[in-house]
Design a protein that fits this description.
The complex is a heterodimer of chains A (about 550) and B (about 210).
Chain A (H helix, E strand, L loop, with lengths): L6 H65 L3 H16 L4 H22 L3 E5 L5 E5 L20 E8 L2 E12 L2 E11 L2 H11 L2 E6 L2 E5 L3 H10 L6 E4 L2 E11 L2 E8 H55 L13 H41 L7 H15 L4 H12 L10 H5 L6 H8 L1 H10 L8 H6 L20 H15 L11 H11 L6 H10 L7 H13 L1
Antiparallel strand pairs in A: 1-2, 1-5, 3-4, 4-5, 6-7, 6-10, 8-9, 9-10
Chain B lengths: L3 E2 L8 E9 L30 E5 L11 E3 L1 E3 L2 E3 L2 E5 L2 E4 L8 E6 L4 E7 L6 E4 L3 E7 L6 E7 L4 E2 L6 E7 L2 E9 L3 E9 L5 E3 L1 E3 L5
Parallel strand pairs in B: 2-18, 2-19, 4-8, 7-13
Antiparallel strand pairs in B: 1-18, 2-15, 3-14, 3-16, 5-6, 8-11, 9-10, 9-12, 12-13, 16-17
Classes of the chains: A alpha+beta (about 550), B mainly beta (about 210).
Chain lengths: ~550, ~210
């Protein structure tokens, strides 16, 4: 089974997914919204452009009318023109006079054209033919070209289509007394320059069509192809060349149409790109913030948990039963967990103490049962236990080792249960066979204890408490440090107690005698360090063994 | 369009008389000046369109004529009369009746002149010494125009307000009589002039094309 993911990974994942979902929604809304907004704003822009164009054009037309009215009052121009026509119809014009009159007319309108900076300034005679023209587009107003002027009013405006191109014109009749001798026309060429000019003003594409043919445009030809194919349509939106365009008709006069159009798709693309860039920056910021935040959050959760885990690990390693884990103070929940853990530990400790007490009682009962078989050995196990602990303490053993020592010593002779009373209680010296029987008791004890798993730590004491450092002990004849320390200690304590106790076959020996005996055989029969420890642990060399031991035992058995 | 009443041939010169009719009255438009203001209507009785016609013998051989004296006044920013017919060598006065300056000039081949500016009460005179048509304008008021017809023979006339005219006696024979109008141009009748009795030539001038 796979290990579950770390908390940090989880919080990061949750945060990222949340941020991603929010950003996706924002993106979706933004895209749709941007499109709608762009459509509205572009349409609005075109409408504004149209209004502005209309207003500007109205003003321009008015100004042109004023201009042309003034220009049409030029006396020299009119005189030359009237003289030309009157005399040519009366008696014909001499060539030099015709040239002179034409020169006069041409000079005058050149002057006027320079003043107005118009594309063209032309004189159209009463038969509707160009008499003279000036300005940069004069080539398209050839002399004698027929021009269909819009209306016959003294002031007129409109569009004329000539072979050379269409012109938006303002005109005034040239009047003498009560008759017209022709018309003076100020023309603006509806060409690429004009389209560009309008396009710059409206900030959108411009298409000029005359009689349904596109004559000028500021957009690609594919777009205008679609536009003319679909026919004129003032306003609205239309698909042209695969893109959606908003279209307004700026101007419709005679054969001429001026449209302004702008690609909604292109505008939406640009706006979306801008919005996405902004969104991208926000997303980046949000993800960084979210990552930092979730990392911090995870750290806030995991750090105290890690601390608790390591505390528990330390406690476990040290078998420290100090039952309290310090609350981390990081969150109420963790503190509750700590308290619950402490409560659990307290319960466990209590249960362990109880079971230890029960276990101790059982072992003690076993030892007591053994001791009760022989009046001479009564209390022997308890005393050996107390002495062993005394030695162990002197040797600075740990609490758990002392526990092992205490219980192991209590049980060290448990194997004797398997010996017959005759051998055990025999007052005289033992036969070799009997002695061999006696020597079997450590192995017997070990066999009994093996049945009980929780007595395993005490097994070496029971099995090896008759081994000697010189290797002449039994049952295995182990040497020196091959014998566990606990076994060596118990061996010394056993010997000391045996020597200082009465037996059926001999009286108790004095302490000093026992001590010298131990000292004599220290290093061979007895473990040197354990003997030294016992000797330094015994209260003094004064001959008062019983009270001291009683006191000692009393303390141990309390 | 030809209404020529041709009488029997005669050796004696005969006068040609007749009437000029204008088919449909020409719609008159009040001129506007440079500032869009309508020029004031003439305070005098408006001259009949018929007074803007000159009837003359076409292709006449030059004949000795006596100089005449004529006058074209500048009044209410108009030339009055608008059409004058004189003999070669005649003087025409251009008195200024308006309280403003005028500047009479002409670009015509028969008489090219520029009288310059002059105020009310002053007059300038021009001698017309070549036959032909002379268009007269004002350099200040571009709508003002007048025509002086200069003939090197005596057979011409300007109709009265009824349109009636009478040409001096001319030799018998086939003659071309022309009525010239400022706007409508020439209309010519062929007449047979016979001695002893007047010839009638009635003109109906063409309707102006609009």
């Amino acid at each position: 089974m796979k290990a579950p993911p770390r908390l940090v990974a989880r919080t990061l994942a949750v945060t990222f997914v949340t941020v991603a979902i929010i950003l996706s929604l924002v993106f979706l809304v933004l895209t749709v919204d941007v499109r709608d907004r762009v459509r509205a704003s572009e349409t609005e822009k075109l409408q504004v452009s149209e209004k502005m164009f209309t207003a500007l054009e109205a003003r321009r037309q008015q100004e042109q009318l004023a201009t042309i009215t003034t220009l049409a009052e030029n006396p020299t121009l009119k005189a030359a023109l009237d003289t030309y026509f009157t005399e040519s119809s009366f008696s014909g014009l001499a060539p030099e006079q015709e040239r002179s009159l034409r020169d006069t007319v041409t000079r005058e309108i050149d002057k006027l054209a320079a003043l107005t900076a118009a594309d063209v300034l032309a004189i159209v005679d009463t038969r509707g033919r160009v008499f003279a023209s000036a300005g940069r587009s004069r080539e398209r107003w050839q002399v004698d070209e027929r021009v269909q002027l819009p209306g016959t009013a003294s002031l007129f405006q409109g569009v004329v289509a000539l072979p050379g191109g269409a012109f938006r014109i303002s005109g005034a009749s040239l009047s003498l007394a009560d008759r017209d001798i022709g018309a003076l026309v100020l023309g603006t060429s509806l060409d690429g320059n004009y389209a560009q000019e309008v396009s710059n003003l409206s900030n959108a594409g411009v298409v000029i069509a005359v009689n349904g043919d596109v004559v000028a445009r500021t957009v690609p030809p594919e777009v205008t192809d679609d536009l003319t194919k679909a026919g004129p349509d003032p306003g609205g939106t239309r698909r042209l060349n695969g893109e959606e365009y908003a279209i307004r008709q700026l101007f419709a006069n005679g054969p001429a149409r001026v449209y302004t159009l702008t690609s909604l798709d292109a505008a939406a693309r640009a706006a979306t790109r801008d919005a996405l860039f902004t969104l991208g920056m926000i997303a980046f910021g949000a993800i960084v913030l979210a990552a930092l935040g979730s990392f911090w959050l995870a750290r806030m959760l995991t750090e105290p948990i890690d601390q608790l885990v390591s505390n528990i690990a330390v406690m476990t390693a040290a078998r420290d039963e100090r039952p309290t884990l310090q609350p981390t103070g990081s969150s109420r929940e963790l503190d509750a967990l700590t308290a619950a853990f402490n409560q659990l530990m307290k319960g466990l400790t209590a249960a362990e103490a109880e079971s230890r007490a029960a276990y101790l009682g059982a072992i003690r009962a076993l030892a007591a049962a053994l001791d009760a078989r022989d009046p001479y050995t009564a209390g022997h196990s308890e005393r050996v236990s107390a002495l062993s602990v005394l030695i162990g303490r002197e040797m600075h053993l740990g609490n758990s080792d002392l526990d092992v020592l205490r219980l192991g010593a209590l049980l060290h002779d448990i194997g004797k249960i398997g010996l017959s009373d005759e051998v055990l209680r025999k007052p005289g010296s033992l036969t070799t066979e009997e002695y061999e029987q006696i020597k079997r008791h450590p192995a017997l004890g070990a066999r009994i204890l093996r049945q009980v798993p929780f007595l395993a730590p005490h097994l070496p004491i029971v099995e090896l408490h008759h081994e000697r450092p010189d290797g002449r002990g039994y049952p295995f004849g182990l040497r020196g440090d091959d014998i566990p320390l606990a076994s060596r200690i118990v061996h010394v304590a056993d010997a000391y107690d045996a020597m200082t106790s009465a037996r059926a076959y001999r009286p108790a020996r004095a302490r000093a005698e026992a001590v010298s005996e131990l000292q004599r055989y220290a290093g061979t029969q007895f473990d040197h360090a354990s003997v030294d420890a016992l000797l330094s642990a015994l209260p003094s060399s004064t001959d008062a063994p019983e009270p001291a031991l009683q006191e000692l035992l009393g303390r141990q058995l309390a | 369009m030809l209404f020529a009443a041709v009488g029997p041939a005669a050796q004696q010169p005969s006068i040609v008389r007749g009437r000029v009719e204008i088919g449909i009255p020409i719609s008159t438009r009040r001129p506007t000046n440079a500032y869009g203001r309508t020029v004031g209507a003439p305070k005098l009785a408006p001259e009949s369109e018929r007074r803007h016609v000159v009837v003359y013998l076409r292709d006449a051989k030059p004949a000795p004529v006596r100089p005449m004296h004529a006058e074209i006044r500048q009044r209410d920013e108009n030339f009055i009369p608008r059409v004058v017919a004189v003999t070669v060598g005649s003087d025409v006065e251009f008195p200024n009746d308006d309280p403003i300056y005028h500047n009479v000039f002409s670009l015509s081949r028969a008489k090219n002149f520029d009288l310059g500016r002059y105020p009310r009460g002053e007059t300038r005179s021009v001698k017309f010494d070549k036959p032909g048509v002379v268009k007269v304008f004002c350099q200040i008021h571009s709508h003002m125009t007048a025509t002086v017809m200069v003939f090197d023979h005596p057979w011409f006339a300007v109709p009265n307000e009824d349109g009636r005219f009478e040409l001096p006696p001319m030799p018998a024979g086939e003659r071309l009589i022309t009525a010239w109008h400022e706007r409508l141009g020439d209309t010519t009748l062929r007449v047979r002039v016979e001695a002893g009795r007047p010839v009638t030539a009635d003109f109906v001038l063409p309707v102006p094309e609009l």
